[in-house]
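Follow-up to my earlier ticket, as requested here are the two runs.
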Amino acid sequence: MTAITLDCADPEALAAFYRQATGLELHPKSDGDFAGLTSEDGLFIGFQRVDDYRAPRWPGQIVPQQVHLDFAVDDLDEAEALLLELGATKPEHQPGGDRWRIITDPAGHPFCLTRG
C-alpha cells in the first residue's frame, strides 16, 4: 500500500492534526482542497475536501466509520493525552479494555491506539 485518503471538510486542518500526531511531513503541494503527509518510507496519507461532509459516529452505523487506522504507541496514556490536546476526542464506548483505545480525529474518524 502506498496511500490512504480520508474525506473531510477541512483538509489543511486535518493534515495539521495528523502531522502533529505522527511527525510526518506536509506534502508541499497541499492546499485547501487536498492536503497530504508523507513518510520517509513512501507512505502517503491524504485528506480531501468533501462538500457536505458528514462525520462518522462511533460506534453507531448511521454514518459508518468509513476507515479505521491503528497507531502503535509506547504509552497509551501519554499518546491519548497528546491527541486530546491536539483536538481529538475519546468516545465513551471503549471495547478494548487495557489493550487499545479508540480516539476520534477532529473530523470524526475513529482510530485506535495500540501498545507498540
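Run two:
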Amino acid sequence: MSNWGLSERPRLRPPARVKYDQTRQTDLLLIPERIIHLNGTAGAILQLVDGKRTVSQIVDELQAKYNQASLLADVVEFLSLASEEGWIER
C-alpha cells in the first residue's frame, strides 16, 4: 500500500471521470470499458481529487463538510486503494 503525503496532489488517471448518476442517486467512476458504482464516501473523496487540491486540503474539506475530525487515515487508505486500482495518480 502506498502512503500519500499531505502535500501531494492526487488526480484522476486520464481519461477517468466522476459523474453523479441522478437516476441511481450515486456517484460513478467512469473509466475505459468500466463503470464503478461508488459508495458515498468514495464519491465524496474522488469528487475532490482534481490534481489541484492537496491531500491535506481534501481531508480538511471533508472534515468540514461532514463535521467530523480525524479523517486523515481513512482518506489516505482510500487514496492508496484507488491508486493501486489505477483510478488515480500522483
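The only thing I checked on run two: The mean pLDDT is 95. Let me know what else you need.
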